[in-house]
Amino acid sequence: MTEAEGGPDMVSFRELARRLVVEGVVEAISHQRVSQLHRDDPAFPPVIHIGRSKAVDYRLAAPYFRARVKRQGWRSDLKGKPQGSDQ
Fold first, then answer.
1. Under 8 Å between Cβ of 17 and 33
2. For 83, how many CA atoms within 13 A lie in the half-sphere containing its CB?
3. CA distance 66 to 84
4. For 57-73, what is the mean pLDDT?
5. pLDDT value at position 69?
6. Which residue of 21, 40, 62, 68 has the fewest C-beta atoms within 10 A of its own C-beta?
7. Measured in whole angstroms, how far is the alpha carbon of residue 68 from the centre of its chain?
8. Any idea what the Cα angle at residue 73 is, between residues 35 and 38, rounded to 5°?
């Protein structure tokens, strides 16, 4: 059986962030941002707890991050306001 056919490739949030950058999936990301996405995005891949750490299957996480729409600089406080509105 090849590695691709094996079981899950569980990694910590810190290792996930490192691998996503090294493998070119994202330009930059911190383990804190990974944790925030886990808390806020219901589409985030399943997470398991190992002691006090959290781990995710890299084979599920990489496609999630590839498909994720990035909104850098997006201002939620202006969402829904008409252009040119001062309110």
1. yes
2. 0
3. 34
4. 87
5. 77
6. 40
7. 8
8. 15
Contact 31, 38 (CB under 8 A): no
Measured over all CA atoms, what is the biggest interatomic distance in the chain, rounded to whole angstroms? Answer: 63
In this structure, are residues 38 and 30 in contact, taking their beta carbons and an 8 Å threshold?
no
DSSP state of 7: S
- Alpha-carbon distance of 4 to 77, in angstroms, equals 44
Contact 13, 35 (CB under 8 A): yes
The residue-averaged pLDDT of 20-49 equals 95
Does residue 62 register a pLDDT over 70?
Answer: yes
What tokens were used for 55?
A: 């781990």
Q: Is the pLDDT of residue 34 over 50?
A: yes
